[in-house]
Amino acid sequence: NAGVTQTPKFRILKIGQSMTLQCAQDMNHNYMYWYRQDPGMGLKLIYYSVGAGITDKGEVPNGYNVSRSTTEDFPLRLELAAPSQTSVYFCASSYSRQGKAEAFFGQGTRLTVV
Amino acid sequence: DAKTTQPNSMESNEEEPVHLPCNHSTISGTDYIHWYRQLPSQGPEYVIHGLTSNVNNRMASLAIAEDRKSSTLILHRATLRDAAVYYCILGGGSYQLTFGKGTKLSVIP
Predict the structure, then answer these.
(1) CA angle B73, A94, B47 (to 5 degrees)
(2) Chain A from 64 to 83: CB within 8 A of any B CB
(3) N vs C: which end of chain B shows fewer Cβ within 10 Å?
(4) 3-state secondary structure string, A28-97?
(5) String of DSSP letters for B42-106
(6) Which residue, among B85, B12, B9, B59, has the nearest Cα to A102 in the 3D structure?
(7) DSSP B31
(8) In this predicted structure, what is the pLDDT of residue A19?
(9) Euclidean distance between CA atoms A11 and A43, whole angstroms
(10) In this predicted model, what pLDDT tens digit does every residue of A35-84 receive, in sequence order?
(11) Which residue of B has its CA nearest to A6?
């Protein structure tokens, strides 16, 4: 099983550029999440989704957008990249709310904005 | 979500048991206690979770105090691969898990 797959693994963006971080899971999980992790810190929730067509903001949503057209995919869009968005981004999925169920994480996308 | 308190770092010798403590004095009755770990340059990995009773799985054991205000993650025999940051997290009705800084475990060969 692939689990949660994130692409790309690394990316360098210039200030003002846009990009989409891809996330796909093959476990038929309804719940999916995007986190960011700054150096030496814990993870912070950006957006989450409880099923296809349903998304909501997490703790740090500013500067990001998401969509969920299928159960499998949950892309994260950066519209106007800023240096403050330099971070490692993790996608996760679970069959129930993360507070009650095991979550599966991808390997991360390391993004640098210069 | 209620907060947890963990030591910043711990050391263990290889092949010895490791007890990682976590305090959560403001835990609510519906909060599950989760443990995740993060190896260098990897995403977090689920270890174990429980509500009231002690739990065992192939990776570790979770010992929960009777008053639920503290818990201990037990790695029965540390290996070099267990060197990671271990996060103790409370999760209940919230959609998210709140990750703190965790405990950095070093395993000495």
Answers:
(1) 15
(2) none
(3) C
(4) CCCEEEEEEECCCCCEEEEEEEEECCEEEECCCCCCEEECCCCCCECCEEECCCCHHHCEEEEEEEECCC
(5) S--EEEEEESSS-EE-SS-EEEE-TTSSEEEEEESS--GGG-EEEEEEEESS-SS------EEEE
(6) B59
(7) P
(8) 96
(9) 19
(10) 999 988 889 999 999 999 999 999 999 999 999 999 999 999 998 999 99
(11) B43
Query: Are B52 and B71 a contacting pair, CB within 8 Å?
Result: no
Where chain B has pLDDT below 70, the residues are 1-2, 93
Pairwise CA distance, residues B27 & B34, whole Å: 12
Q: Is A59 on the interface with B (CB under 8 A)?
A: yes
Task: Return the structure tokens found at A97.
Answer: 């709310």
Binary contact (A99, B101; C-beta < 8 A): no
